[in-house]
Amino acid sequence: MTYSIAQAAERSGLSIDTLRYYERIGLVDPPARDSGGRRLYSDNDLAWLGFLTKLRTTGMPIRLMREYAQLRHKGSATAGRRKQILFEHRADVRQRIAELHACLEVLDCKITNYAEIEAKMAGQQLIQEASA
């Protein structure tokens, strides 16, 4: 199946401008073209865009994404380096997740504290209303 650039943008969640940018910087191979010169994206192209989106969402720098994409073109001989890139990036992602968990604990503590303050204030107001 093939998709126009608009359909590929919609399916990938990326903008048309981002698709063109990714093509320009070498993250995405130039897609096939129809007889009118319009880009046609394949299911494989969309799968690659999905992978790139995951890398970007997890904070991989474009520089490393480009290196990975270039190595991908060189085939199996580059599997070791590609694995290393992903391994190192995974470690960075795990560190960020740990940092976010620590931040979440602080937020949870603050929310609990404010809930306790509100409950205490509500209790005091009930006592005041009962004695009035």
UniProtKB/TrEMBL annotation:
<dbReference type="Pfam" id="PF13411">
    <property type="entry name" value="MerR_1"/>
</dbReference>
<protein>
    <recommendedName>
        <fullName>HTH merR-type domain-containing protein</fullName>
    </recommendedName>
</protein>
<dbReference type="InterPro" id="IPR047057">
    <property type="entry name" value="MerR_fam"/>
</dbReference>
<dbReference type="GO" id="GO:0003677">
    <property type="term" value="F:DNA binding"/>
</dbReference>
<dbReference type="GO" id="GO:0003700">
    <property type="term" value="F:DNA-binding transcription factor activity"/>
</dbReference>
<dbReference type="InterPro" id="IPR000551">
    <property type="entry name" value="MerR-type_HTH_dom"/>
</dbReference>
<keyword id="KW-0238">DNA-binding</keyword>
<dbReference type="InterPro" id="IPR009061">
    <property type="entry name" value="DNA-bd_dom_put_sf"/>
</dbReference>
<feature type="domain" description="HTH merR-type">
    <location>
        <begin position="2"/>
        <end position="71"/>
    </location>
</feature>
